[in-house]
Amino acid sequence: MIPEYLLPHTVTRIRETVADEWGGVTSSSVSIPHTRIEPQTGRTWGLTADMPMIRARLFANDADINEGDRITFDGVTYTVQTVRKLYGFTYDHMECDLT
């Protein structure tokens, strides 16, 4: 686990869900404390040779974040590209690439 004093940021997670058979979309937002956002410069390669630009990386100990969620921090909205849960002997923390 990452010590909380190294995770000074609070982000807002926005998750969209399809609510009805007509395709109506609802969204729910949750504030997630004890995270860290670090700006990044890099590209990630997919199977179709696409290259989305990674704008930031999110670090958190234990948070309900999935690929496709939107993260808002300091007025900037990011989309979660990948979620990696890292383990040592047990679960340690998660890192998310944000585009």
Question: Could you please describe the fold and organization of this structure?
Answer:
There is one protein chain. This protein has 99 residues and is mostly beta strands. It has a single domain (4-98), classed as Thrombin, subunit H (Beta Barrel), CATH 2.40.10.270. The protein contains no helices and six strands. Strands 1-2-3-6-5-4 form a six-stranded antiparallel beta barrel. It is globular, with a radius of gyration of 15 Å. The two termini are 25 Å apart. The model has no long low-confidence stretch (mean pLDDT 85).
Question: What layout of secondary structure does this protein have?
Answer:
Layout: E1 9-18, E2 25-43, E3 53-60, E4 70-73, E5 76-87, E6 91-98
Antiparallel strand pairs: 1-2, 1-4, 2-3, 3-6, 4-5, 5-6
Give a brief description.
This protein has about 100 residues and is mostly beta strands. The protein is built from no helices and 6 strands. The chain has a 6-stranded antiparallel beta barrel.
